[in-house]
Amino acid sequence: MNEQKKTNPSNLKKFLLYLPLSFLLIIFFLELFSRIFLACQYQAPFLKPQGIILHYYPELHKAQNTYTNKNDGIFDILILGGSVLHNDWGEVEKHLTQQLRKKIGLAFRVFNLSNTAHSTLDSKFKMQLLTGKHFDLVMLYHGINDVRANNAPDSVFQTDYSHYLWYAHLRNILKHKEMSFSVIPYMLDYLLITARSFFQSDRFMPLKVPKAEWIPYGHKIKTQTAFEKNIKDIVATAQKNKTPVLLLTFAYYIPENYSMKKFLNEELDYHYGKSVKCSVELWGKPADVRKGIEAHNSIIKKIAQNGSHIYFIDMNSIFNKNKTYFDDVCHLTDQGSSKFVSALIPEIRQIIKKQPGAHLFAAF
Questions:
Q1: Consecutive H or E run containing 292
Q2: Model-level pTM?
Q3: What is residue 146's DSSP assignment?
Q4: Which is nearest to 124 in space by CA: 240, 227, 230?
Q5: Phi/psi zone of residue 279: left (φ > 0), alpha (ψ -120 to 50 degrees), beta?
Q6: How far apart are CA 236 and CA 115, in angstroms?
Q7: Which one, of 141, 139, 68, lies nearest residue 107 by Cα?
Q8: How far apart are CA 288 and CA 340, in angstroms?
Q9: Which residues are CB-neighbours of 240 under 8 A, at least 6 positions away?
Q10: Spatial separation of the C-alpha atoms in residues 96 and 256, rounded to whole Å
Q11: The sheet that has 108-112: what strands, in order across it?
């Protein structure tokens, strides 16, 4: 009995010694397997797991890895928007590079960060992720993708768009600045978000197509506050660096005789040039989509009237609404893309001339 009592202190010491070691070992394996999971599931670099952001925004890669400087003699243009400006959906970037060479003739680079279904919030996040990068012009073209967010009940809709699972995951990445040191805090939140999306799927809406049963809720335009805040935040970020911002209203075309049946049968006044056709219903009911875009265009006009280093083109009023320019509600034909860029060039020329170091730009 006495011997057993004598050995107890020794056992306690061993326990106290192994407890922290066991804890550290558990942490090590949690970190290891978490990084392996992120690498396999999201192609996140094992040693730099914060690179998971490129799974969501692969278009950031060029901008993040290109050295830019205001005195390098190159005019750097950052483009933010949705699919209309993406190369898979139109020829805007192609025409822009051609006309910049032909009509302005300066050395330039175009960083086109536009992508399918991306809203003003995506553009805001991208601007945050490019903090410290220099651009000579930021061009912003949004209006329709935010409209989709209206297709949710009031009890579900959130002004920060957190009723999209997409943005819940993105915010989780942006929140965890410590990911280069440890991914465990990020993974804990990731698991909570995943669990919530499974058990409360009725609280989230898809990114690219509204839920059919929620489309009637789209008649109430709830996105004005979010749209305005996101645009203003992007402008404010640019203005900190005294970077000019070019704001554009959103050009769209919904024929008066529009119906889903006529659209699918190609009976409407659209060009139908794209292999993938986007019906208006991808964003909501036609009347609601029209109302939403007009509300957003009004906000763009209002913001453009206030603040320094802001330039503006009423792109929606430039286009005649017909199949010459529109493949569908918003995507442009080749002629439409050319007309879009032709409206940009005079404004870009004025922006360049007003730049403090305009004389530095090569061949200008």
A1: helix 286-304
A2: 0.91
A3: G
A4: 230
A5: beta
A6: 22
A7: 68
A8: 25
A9: none
A10: 31
A11: 108-112, 75-81, 137-141, 245-248, 310-313
Distance between CA atoms of residues 83 and 119, nearest Å: 10
Instruction: Give residue for tokens 């061993």.
Output: 14
Nearest to 90 by CA among 141, 33, 30, 160: 141
Report the chain's terminal Cα–Cα distance, integer Å: 96
Give the chain's domains with CATH numbers. 58-154+210-358 (3.40.50.1110)
Bridge partners (DSSP) of residue 76 are: 109
Nearest Cα neighbor of 328 from 274, 256, 257, 249 is: 274
Model pLDDT, residue 115 = 97
Helix, strand, or coil here: 359? helix
CB 234 within 8 A of CB 241: no
CB 245 within 8 A of CB 140: yes
Kindly list the distances between the CA atom of residue 333 and the CA atoms of 61, 219, 290, in Å, as whole numbers in the listed order. 28, 29, 20
Q: Are 147 and 289 in contact (CB under 8 A)?
A: yes
In the chain (364 residues long), the average pLDDT of successive 10-residue segments reads 55 70 88 96 95 97 91 92 95 96 89 97 97 94 98 96 96 96 97 94 90 96 98 95 95 97 95 84 98 98 88 97 96 96 95 70 48
Query: 């943005």: which residue's tokens?
Result: 167
DSSP bridge pairs for 246: 139, 311
Dihedrals phi, psi of 112, to nearest 5 degrees: -95, 105
Collapse the DSSP code of 317 into the 3-class scheme (helix H, G, I; strand E, B; otherwise coil) and give the result.
helix
